[in-house]
Amino acid sequence: MKKTFYYNFFPTKAEEEEAAKSGSSDLNLPVKGAHRDKGLLSPPEADPESMEDQKIVNNTDVLTGKLVLLQNDVFEHIFRYWSLDICNQVVKGNKVYTAVWDLTPETNPIPYQNENIYFGKGPRDTYILGWLDVVRNAKVKSRDEVGLYWDQKTGTFHLKILRRGV
């Protein structure tokens, strides 16, 4: 486990307003905090309500190992959490290698992070999540319904097979 120290140099808007009302000047001091980074060691908890983007998988998604996502869904559910630099890299056509947690087995989620797991631009205003290993290991078939969302806490995609053969 890696321990990261950070300093909060900028107060929030609420802290600024509170300090202005009370007349205190404590906002100029940095606040030291600690953050423990567990990486992919601790599995996330499955939350079916969080599955923002639900999609019925088609034959092409399974055969190519590339889950095609619509531009509106990507901008609304993924890009809003990413930095502008990373979004620009993807829009320009570069791949961003990421991690995917398969939350289908709720008691033992499976992490995936390798060269087959990536996010990139697809044809005609679509985006692609490379998920070849997930397809193979979870035995995803055409007409399965999957839920997908970007978890801001872990910085990973969470994927769950919601229903088989819809």
Quick rundown:
The protein has 166 residues and is of the alpha+beta class.
The residue ranges in which pLDDT falls below 50 over 5 or more consecutive positions are: 29-38
Find the structural class using helix and strand composition: alpha+beta
Report the portion of residues in β strands. Answer: 25-35%
Q: What is the gyration radius calculated from CA atoms?
A: 20 Å
Helix content bin: 10-25%
Instruction: Name the average pLDDT.
Output: 79
Q: What is the count of helical runs? A: 5
Distance between the termini: 41 Å
Order of helices and strands: EHEEHEHHEEEEEHEE
User: Main sheet, how many strands, which sense, barrel?
Assistant: 5 strands, mixed
Shape: elongated
Strand order of the largest sheet: 3-10-11-6-7
Write up this protein.
This protein is an alpha+beta fold and 166 residues long. Helices cover 23% and strands 34% of the residues. The chain contains 5 helices and 11 strands; from the N terminus they run βαββαβααβββββαββ. The protein has helices at 13-22, 59-64, 71-77, 84-91, 132-138, and strands spanning 2-8, 31-37, 53-56, 66-70, 96-97, 100-102, 110-112, 117-121, 126-131, 145-151, 156-163. A 5-stranded mixed beta sheet has the order 3-10-11-6-7, covered by helices on one side. A hairpin with a 4-residue loop joins strand 10 (145-151) and strand 11 (156-163).
